[in-house]
Structures are given as structure tokens and as C-alpha cells.
Amino acid sequence: MLIALADRKAKAVALHEGLRTSEHRALVLGPVLAQVWRPDPALVHALAGALKGCTVPQARSAEPAMRETKAGRPECLACATGLDVTDWRRIGTALGQAALPAKKRPDAVDAWVALAAARHGSAVIFTSDPDDIHAFLEVLQPPDVHVFPV
Question: Which of 113, 22, 17 is nearest to 74 (CA)?
């Protein structure tokens, strides 16, 4: 999704704009950001703009996960708490059991994205690799996570 936003793809931009009004900011996991961030001024400018209104869970300088409401700011427990050993084991299990598409290798960041969505529930993952994410979600079996290709 970040790459599509940096490339200003219409579908990704429209989806991202729609997320700007949601109570919970869009999540960008730190490793996902690290995978796409490069010292190219045009890319940095595009990504910085795309990241406005998003949160990077547990990053000190990130926006809070939840937007301010008239009653104050609620807290997202999934964003506020880090992964524990059980979560890392679930990611490892997903890496070992996922039925990935041919010629694909297990990607810990993709598995972490799937787990982050599972921890949030009723989540939507916007990705250019929907088959990979689906494979990890089939192992994790969250009740209500959706994958939307961009």
C-alpha cells in the first residue's frame, strides 16, 4: 500500500483518503516502513505525505493510534502493547505452515502484518501481495480480517 501511495495510484490514494476519518488511524508497522523507505527525496516526500494520519505502533514519534473524540482519546490495546513470546511463536508457526504461492518465500513482515490485523479484529489489510497475506491468515485463523488488493 505504501508503494502504491508513493506512486500516487488512484485506487490507493482514494482508499487512504477514506481512512483519514476513521476513529483508528491506519497502521504502518515499523518493518513495513523500513522495507520501503529509501533516501530518495521524491520517495521521502511521497511517503511522508502518505504517513500523515497513520500510526506506527509503539514508535515514540508516531501519532496516537486513536484519534481524539469529544469524550477524549480512547486507547487501542493492540497498538499500545507489544508482541509477547507467544505472538512471535505464532508468526513463526505461520511462516512454517503457510501455503504460499509458488516461488514465494516466507516473509516475517507479511506474517507480522497478518498477526497485527488479527490482533485488532475487523481489520482490512491493503496490500499488493494478497495471496501471501491470505496464506498467513489461513494459518492464524482470525474471525474477521479482510484483504484488499491495491
Answer: 22
Dihedrals φ, ψ of 43, to 5°? -65, -45
Which residue in this structure is represented by grid cell 488512484?
A: 10
The HSE-up count of residue 60 (CA atoms within 13 Å, CB side) is 0
Q: What is the dihedral of CA 92, 95, 96, 100, to 10 degrees?
A: 170
Cβ-proximal residues to 96 (8 Å cutoff; 6+ apart), any chain: 106
Here the cell at position 124 is 482490512
Question: In one letter, which amino acid is 54?
Answer: C
What is d(CA 71, CA 96) in angstroms, rounded to the nearest whole number? 44
Contacts of 5 (CB under 8 A, 6+ apart): 12, 13, 16, 46, 47, 50
pTM: 0.91
CA-CA distance, 23 to 91, in Å (whole number)? 27
Q: Which residue has the cell 491495491?
A: 150
d(CA 137, CA 108): 13
* pLDDT tens-place string over residues 87-131: 999 999 999 999 999 999 999 999 999 999 999 989 999 999 999
